[in-house]
Specification:
This protein is an alpha/beta fold. It contains five helices and nine strands, in the order E-H-E-E-H-E-H-E-H-E-E-E-H-E. The longest helix is centred in the last third of the chain and has 24 residues. The model has no long low-confidence stretch (mean pLDDT about 95). Pfam families: adh_short. This is Putative short chain dehydrogenase. It comes from Prochlorococcus marinus str. SB.
């Protein structure tokens, strides 16, 4: 029987990941989850809403396949009300909470929601898209206070979870991923600052990430890995 794979986040990277996994991983039933999409199969999900996460649990419970893979591809750098801060005086509590809600709190609450479906008799992978700017050790430029801190918090959440799951689910692996700068709506306002050879298409980034995910194992759980398979300092 096929395993169940959930890609959460129907933006540029998430949708491409779902398409590519669906084509390459014939042993998986791939479902894209998010607010809206034309991808099929698609489950409506608002990762910031607790009731929506409960509905997700019901859908997983009713699916005939074992859960084998979850990829969190949600994230928000900017919106109509949110912009990355260049200096301290730009900080605003409401905007900080918005960034932490989607970039830190929601991914770990997604893990909480799916935890009861983790199999103990076969491998299970949970991958979450973080960002290099969430690395404290790699921070050389400052700025982007809320986004950096929220991604750092996401990393800490999942590092702690990887230790807990290693005890409770010995066949589970958790990976934090940095996809590089990808040509999506999230990064588009900042493309002019990115060298052309470092701006990846969705298709290219997706293949990088899938190759990393496929090579993860319980022995490598709890790592923060870039698109080129290099390990990023916390």
């Amino acid at each position: 029987m096929k395993g169940l794979a959930l890609v959460v986040g129907a933006g540029g990277i998430g949708t491409q990941l779902a398409k590519d996994l669906n084509e390459s991983e014939k042993d998986l039933d791939v479902v894209l989850c998010g607010r809206k999409s034309e991808f099929n199969p698609f489950w409506e999900l608002d990762i910031e809403d607790s009731q929506s996460l409960l509905q997700l649990k019901n859908k997983i419970s009713n699916h005939p396949s074992k859960l084998r893979l979850v990829v969190n591809a949600t994230g928000r750098l900017h919106s109509d009300s949110l912009q990355p801060e260049k200096r301290l005086q730009h900080l605003d509590k409401k905007n900080m909470m918005e960034s932490f809600s989607i970039n830190a709190f929601s991914p770990i609450l997604l893990a909480k929601a799916i935890e009861e479906f983790i199999p103990k008799d076969c491998d299970f992978n949970f991958a979450s898209i973080s960002a290099r700017v969430g690395s404290i050790g790699d921070n050389q430029t400052g700025g982007w206070y809320s986004y950096r801190a929220a991604k750092s918090a996401q990393n800490q959440f999942f590092k702690s979870l990887s230790i807990e799951w290693a005890r409770r689910f010995p066949k589970a692996a958790i990976t934090l991923l940095h996809p590089g700068t990808v040509d999506t709506d999230l990064s588009r306002p900042f493309h002019k600052f990115v060298p052309e050879h470092k701006l990846f298409s969705k298709e290219k980034s997706s293949q990088f990430l899938i190759n990393i995910i496929k090579n993860q194992s319980p022995e490598s759980t709890g790592k923060f890995i870039a698109w080129d398979n290099s390990e990023i300092p916390w």
